[in-house]
Design brief:
Elements: H1 9-18, E1 23-27, E2 35-42, E3 46-53, H2 59-69, H3 72-75, E4 83-87, E5 92-96, E6 101-102, H4 112-127, E7 131-133, H5 136-149, H6 156-166, E8 174-179, E9 188-191, E10 194-197, E11 204-206, H7 213-217, H8 219-222, H9 224-234, H10 241-261, H11 265-278
Antiparallel strand pairs: 1-2, 2-3, 3-5, 4-5, 6-9, 7-8, 8-11, 9-10
Helix pairs in contact: 4-9, 5-10, 10-11
Length: about 280
């Protein structure tokens, strides 16, 4: 029977105060990290989605910030969830349920119009703010270094090549925009032909091209028509060759290292394949 047993007592109290008649109807948690995602039903509030984090996770904190600062650019037109309750101290977030079927694994994942709509949504999300992060390039290098220091199975010759290339990476800052952080079909919904987006747990201010890295290694690579449709919707291609390569390297190293650390060997293989393409 589905229940709130994965929540701490404090988190259960918070949910009970906000939605006392809530019952769990589905568990959408990944199970890889201490993050819980439950679909709820309430006679008073309707269908909701509850997200909570454990002590080692920060997805809910990032998602709360995203809802407070950026998500309204999409949620105001029904194309992203609306935040209902948030408690940062307890790592609890409740949003309204958004109708639709996940695009990943359906025929919609091969439909150029899905990608055209996704490109248009991302443009609206990116264009609401442009800022400057004074240490972006320094932080990027440090993040890649942390992943390389952590336990991983990256080929030693590739690790050496990455470290050598990083020595020539620029220092200082970069232009940033609000980014989703995991913009791909597993976080898109399709509902009667309309694309919506969910899960802002990795949202942050980053260079625009970082939201394209996962699409590039998956859907764009297997079908160039999807890439063309996406940029038709987006309106332009924000990728600058040198920065784009740094983005892809950081994404590949991070994927291979992080996935190995949580025993997700299928996802680890995705990062390993990308590294081999970058360093043939």
């Amino acid at each position: 029977m589905l229940s709130f047993e994965k929540l701490t007592s404090r988190q259960r109290d918070v949910v009970g105060q906000w939605v006392p008649d809530a019952r769990v109807v589905a568990d959408h948690s990944w199970g890889l990290v201490d993050n819980v995602v439950l679909e709820l039903d309430s006679a008073e509030r309707g269908r909701l989605v509850l997200k909570v984090d454990g002590p080692t996770n920060h997805h809910v904190t990032r998602e709360i910030r995203a809802h407070r600062e950026w998500v309204s650019a999409l949620s105001s037109t029904g194309l992203a969830p609306v935040m209902v309750y948030a408690d940062e101290a307890s790592h609890v977030l409740i949003t309204r349920y958004l109708p639709g079927e996940l695009v990943q694994g359906t025929s919609a994942q091969n439909d150029p119009d899905t990608f055209r709509q996704a490109g248009s949504l991302l443009a609206a999300f990116h264009q609401q703010l442009r800022s400057y992060h004074p240490t972006w390039n320094d932080d990027l290098r440090e993040r890649v270094e942390r992943h390389l220091v952590a336990p991983h199975r990256i080929d030693p010759s590739i690790e050496t090549a990455v470290r050598t290339e990083m020595r020539n990476w620029p220092t200082g800052g970069a232009a940033v925009v609000p980014t989703h952080g995991d913009w791909q079909p597993r976080n898109w919904l399709i509902d009667q032909g309309t694309v919506r987006v969910i899960d802002f747990g990795r949202a942050d201010l980053r260079p625009a091209d970082t939201d394209l890295a996962r699409l590039a290694r998956q859907d764009f690579q297997r079908n160039p028509e999807l890439e063309s449709a996406f940029f038709t919707g987006y309106g332009s291609d924000p990728r600058e060759p040198e920065q784009w390569r740094r983005t892809l390297i950081a994404e590949a190293v991070g994927t291979a290292s992080w996935a190995y650390g949580v025993n997700d060997y299928e996802f680890e293989a995705v990062g390993q394949r990308q590294l081999k393409l970058l360093y043939p």
